């Protein structure tokens, strides 16, 4: 039997760090990442034959569980027609219609091949549309790895200690203004000073790349108001929250409407897909209608569209998201009970189908400073113990957890039993 350790050794020879995305590395965990062989429903199966209840869900897309039979059948049905044509196909329109129907603030939409491309293109569009260079983002929010957005970023950039990446020209980074998440006064002060130079605000409406931090009342509303007052474009990066926090995304859940929305993950059903869209007047500035360039050889790839359209249709079953949030609550409250009983200082937070676990004595975590003040060693011990008991969590304290509709009551109970053992170990 080949082990993960052997595969990681081999991988490390020709792949930097042995991984194709740094969030997959087990940074500071003193063990090699686990190589998976297959997945089904709520489970991942590794190359050594171990099964894990998975709360990563391929970092979000697998909201109905892994290897969803309907999604696979839709891809299979198109496979023999060919993989890509580089011409328009009907299913791209089906996808666009579906997105615009499910998220009404999106009057027009363009497909991309990743979330990074979606946010990068939305930023360019906002800059081109307003004729301004400055963008506002929030500390610990992650919007992919394009240059303007790798300034004080979250996710792997934070986990690996490089929130502002070398290689981003200072002359570009100086146009990115970074503010504190959940601080409406800070936003107001910034816009009082430079509002008329700001092309856009880009925000994760629920921060999911510094653990899971929901917006506080008035935060998103303030963003909407200052953008209206100063002619800036409000961009919600719903790559993670889209179709997860609610059917219509975080914007439906919190009732704040952005000008542009970025999507990824669920919209591709596990295939490489992103999308950005919004107000018609802005979107009509994109080439070939307007002068602002956006393109992609594989954008709107028919197999990827088939997977995404099938998954989005499955989410429209009434009550889907309520049931998902209930599962999250069962998990959260069960964890809290067990941590309290063991005397481990821990809190949880959630929004719809995403959640976070923080090792802290604070009663809530609202921003980057509070998220990074949590105990990293406690997280590492929790992660390792959970893994040893068959539960796969994101290998970083700065990532959200993802629930799927394939997680059964038994899966959640197994997770809580594992947590009880983990907490006992951590308390000792
Ligand atoms: N925005 C957000 C909110 C994300 O969580 C991510 C990825 N985790 C991205 C953008 C980038 O997406 P991708 O990894 O597909 O480029």
TrEMBL record:
Pathway: Porphyrin-containing compound metabolism; protoporphyrin-IX biosynthesis; 5-aminolevulinate from L-glutamyl-tRNA(Glu): step 2/2. It comes from the Bacteria. It is found in: Cytoplasm. Its EC number is 5.4.3.8. Its main location: cytoplasm. It catalyses: (S)-4-amino-5-oxopentanoate = 5-aminolevulinate. The keyword Cytoplasm applies. It is an enzyme of class 5 (isomerase). Keywords: Cytoplasm, Isomerase, Porphyrin biosynthesis, Pyridoxal phosphate. Its cofactor is pyridoxal 5'-phosphate. CDD domains: OAT_like. One of its GO terms (molecular function) is glutamate-1-semialdehyde 2,1-aminomutase activity. Gene3D superfamilies: Aspartate Aminotransferase, domain 1, Type I PLP-dependent aspartate aminotransferase-like (Major domain). SUPFAM superfamilies: PLP-dependent transferases. Homodimer. PANTHER family: GLUTAMATE-1-SEMIALDEHYDE 2,1-AMINOMUTASE, GLUTAMATE-1-SEMIALDEHYDE 2,1-AMINOMUTASE 1, CHLOROPLASTIC-RELATED. Belongs to the class-III pyridoxal-phosphate-dependent aminotransferase family. HemL subfamily. This is Glutamate-1-semialdehyde 2,1-aminomutase. It comes from Halomonas llamarensis.
């Amino acid at each position: 039997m080949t082990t993960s350790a052997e595969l990681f050794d081999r991988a490390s020879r020709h792949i930097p760090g042995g991984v194709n995305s740094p969030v997959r590395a087990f940074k500071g965990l003193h063990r090699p990442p686990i190589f998976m062989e297959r997945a089904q429903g709520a489970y991942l199966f590794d190359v050594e034959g171990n099964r894990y209840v998975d709360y990563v869900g391929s970092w979000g897309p697998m909201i109905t569980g892994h290897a969803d039979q309907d999604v696979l059948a839709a891809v299979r049905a198109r496979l023999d027609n060919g993989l890509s044509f580089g011409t328009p196909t009907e299913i791209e329109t089906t996808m666009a219609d579906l997105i615009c129907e499910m998220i009404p603030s999106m009057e027009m939409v363009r497909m991309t091949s990743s979330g990074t491309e979606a946010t990068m293109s939305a930023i360019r569009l906002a800059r081109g549309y307003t004729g301004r260079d400055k963008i506002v983002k929030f500390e610990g929010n992650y919007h992919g790895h394009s240059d303007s957005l790798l300034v004080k970023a979250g996710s792997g950039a934070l986990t690996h200690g490089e929130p502002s990446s070398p290689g981003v020209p200072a002359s570009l980074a100086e146009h990115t203004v970074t503010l504190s998440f959940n601080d409406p006064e800070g936003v107001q002060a910034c816009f009082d000073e430079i509002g008329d130079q700001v092309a856009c605000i880009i925000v994760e409406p629920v921060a999911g790349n510094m653990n899971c931090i929901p917006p506080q009342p008035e935060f998103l509303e303030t963003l909407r108001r200052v953008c209206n007052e100063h002619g800036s474009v409000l961009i919600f990066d719903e790559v993670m929250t889209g179709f997860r926090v609610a059917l219509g995304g975080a914007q439906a859940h919190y009732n704040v409407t952005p000008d542009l929305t970025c999507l990824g993950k669920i919209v591709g059903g596990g295939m490489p897909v992103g999308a950005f869209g919004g107000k018609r007047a802005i979107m009509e500035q994109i080439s070939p209608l307007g002068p602002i360039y956006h393109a992609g050889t594989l954008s709107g790839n028919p197999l990827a569209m088939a997977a995404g359209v099938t998954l989005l249709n499955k989410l429209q079953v009434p009550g889907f998201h309520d049931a998902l949030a209930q599962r999250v609550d069962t998990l959260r409250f069960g964890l809290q009970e067990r941590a309290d009983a063991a005397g481990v200082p821990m809190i949880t937070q959630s929004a719809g189908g995403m959640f976070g676990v923080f090792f802290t004595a604070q009663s809530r975590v609202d921003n980057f400073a509070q998220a990074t003040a949590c105990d990293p060693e406690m997280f590492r011990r929790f992660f390792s113990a959970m893994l040893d008991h068959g539960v796969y969590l994101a290998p970083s304290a700065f990532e959200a957890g993802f629930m799927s509709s394939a997680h059964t009551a038994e899966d959640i109970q197994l997770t809580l039993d594992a947590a009880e053992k983990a907490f006992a170990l951590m308390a000792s």
